[in-house]
Amino acid sequence: MLKPYVQLDDDGRPLKGTLPQTEDGRVVEFYYDKAGENITVVLITKPSLDASRKRAFTTEKTFKTVSTLEDFLLLGYELDGDKIYATLEMFDDQSIRRIDASRLLDY
């Protein structure tokens, strides 16, 4: 199993990193807050035949699902082995969902 690459600052705090490329070619980059404690931004690049799609997902921001156009609040991220999971709060029913962050482009 490949592990994520994490770049550290001069004090040894994590700054940013990348996950191993997914089976469908997605590249996931992630960035930590200034304290190096929490992942605050995930940048996903999905290759395609015509042009690559790239989008940033920042915590505490509102986004819409692609399939149903339902609004959700991105609560946070959790690095678990070689994956990052995103925790979402759905506006319609206030349910909490946890998904693979590499799938945020399609969610």
Describe this structure in words.
- The chain has 107 residues and is mainly beta.
- The chain has no helices and 9 strands.
- The protein has a 5-stranded antiparallel β-sheet with strand order 1-2-3-4-5, with no helix packed on it.
- Strand 1 (5-8) and strand 2 (14-18) form a beta hairpin.
- The protein is globular.
- The mean pLDDT is 92.
Tell me how many strands there are: 9
What would the principal axes of the Cα set say about the shape? globular
The main sheet orders its strands as: 1-2-3-4-5
Give me the number of helical elements: 0
CA-based gyration radius: 14 Å
Main beta-sheet annotation: 5 strands, antiparallel
- What fraction of residues sit in β-strands? over 45%
Order of helices and strands: EEEEEEEEE
Query: Ends: how far apart?
Result: 26 Å
In helices, the fraction of residues equals under 10%
